[in-house]
């Protein structure tokens, strides 16, 4: 099943609508959607390493714009939509922890969380909820999200064919390791924050 999903995602890169789908996923992940753009980004970069840099730019711009939506959800709609989204994803306790951390460590919270696969919507909504300065939020989002996606582009443009060969030849092992890392990240997040 995962192999079919991987092959299907690779086939998306050939479609003219692929960059739009990537932008939509990246935008929505920053404010309300649970699936990170890496699910599409990495296979698309593997299929088209020549477009890795443009895909990274698309993800960065869409993620920051989606982050601004998340910010305004937190700023004006936290009591209704924002709280519901946090409850839906089981992140209610994390929101309160972040809110208190913003008073002392706001810049660092955005810098660290923007680089990790931890749900960025938690940062965006909480930034608005905590009343964090919008200009700083946008600047730090551009820096961190850009760094994250462009590092992936660098790796894919430099090692893409080798990475693709490893995935193709050892798909089950790679998929298992990716799932373990993904689940482990969420478990660590729940216990650390």
Automatic annotation (TrEMBL):
The keyword Cell inner membrane does not apply. GO terms for cellular component: plasma membrane. Keywords: Membrane, Transmembrane, Transmembrane helix. The keyword Methyltransferase does not apply. Residues 48-157 form the VTT domain. It comes from the Bacteria. InterPro entries: DedA_domain, VTT_dom. The chain crosses the membrane at residues 53-78, 136-159, 171-192. This is DedA family protein. It comes from Microvirga mediterraneensis.
């Amino acid at each position: 099943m995962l192999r079919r999903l991987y092959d299907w995602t690779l086939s998306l890169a050939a479609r003219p609508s692929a960059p739009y789908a990537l932008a939509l996923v990246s935008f929505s992940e920053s404010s309300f959607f649970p699936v990170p753009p890496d699910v599409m980004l990495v296979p698309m970069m593997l299929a088209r390493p020549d477009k890795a840099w443009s895909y990274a730019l698309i993800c960065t711009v869409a993620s920051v714009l989606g982050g601004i939506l998340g910010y305004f959800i937190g700023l004006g709609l936290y009591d209704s939509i924002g709280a519901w989204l946090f409850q839906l994803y089981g992140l209610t306790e994390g929101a309160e922890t972040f809110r208190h951390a913003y008073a002392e460590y706001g810049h660092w919270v955005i810098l660290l969380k923007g680089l990790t696969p931890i749900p960025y919507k938690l940062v965006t909504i909480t930034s608005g909820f905590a009343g964090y300065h919008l200009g700083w939020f946008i600047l730090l989002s551009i820096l961190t999200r850009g760094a994250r996606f462009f590092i992936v582009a660098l790796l894919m443009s430099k090692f893409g064919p080798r990475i693709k060969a490893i995935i193709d030849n050892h798909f089950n092992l790679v998929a298992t390791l990716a799932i373990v890392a993904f689940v482990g990240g969420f478990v660590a997040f729940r216990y650390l924050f």
